[in-house]
Amino acid sequence: MFQHIVGPVFFRTSMGFDSNIILIKTDNRVVLVDTGTGMHASDIERELQSIGVTYEDVTDIVLTHSHIDHIGGVPAILKAGEPKIYLHKEEADRINSGDMTLTLASTFGAQLPPLRIDVALKEGDVLTFDDVKLHVYHTPGHSIGSICLHEKRLNLLITGDTMFPGGSFGRVDFPTGNPAALVASLKRIAELDFEIALAGHMNAITHDAKRSAMYSYEMARSMFTGPL
Fold first, then answer.
1. pTM
2. Can you tell me the mean pLDDT for 29-55?
């Protein structure tokens, strides 16, 4: 179920292979950050309906990266409405050219139709949804187009698969994964100010998330570059 986190932000902790899903529900916009695999699309919509949202209501889909467990739910939402889709340009440009390799759909035996990304994001962009402003940080490492989204007023960071709770972080053995880039990305986000972190997998961090980010950075640095 979708858990209220802060302000207009709700969070669904997903099970199994699905990614977590974040809902931002403002006066005029209904935004999803990531969509899961699509395998449980009907269940997710039922859960959204319990808080007054349908797939038809979704105005925007922001993807933290293009792996199938985050992007696979997009087609079901597109059948119901016409949301604008956002993804970092490093992966958006490939998808828009017809190259779906980085989605990993074929790797996991999934079927994903061609998609059109409406907005190719870049470092420094700010996505404004009424009074919610998501500052885009390009954080490669897990994948070449991974991003984190910082909402300063809400003291919130959406970390995708860059950082997880408990000092963990995204794997780097998929195509375009890069250990050194991940360490640098974790260092960047550990220097930001935020209290809450919502990751692509595992539970929400609702208190002292900056400390958790520093722990993830220290763990990754130790693993990939040797002892601190």
1. 0.97
2. 96
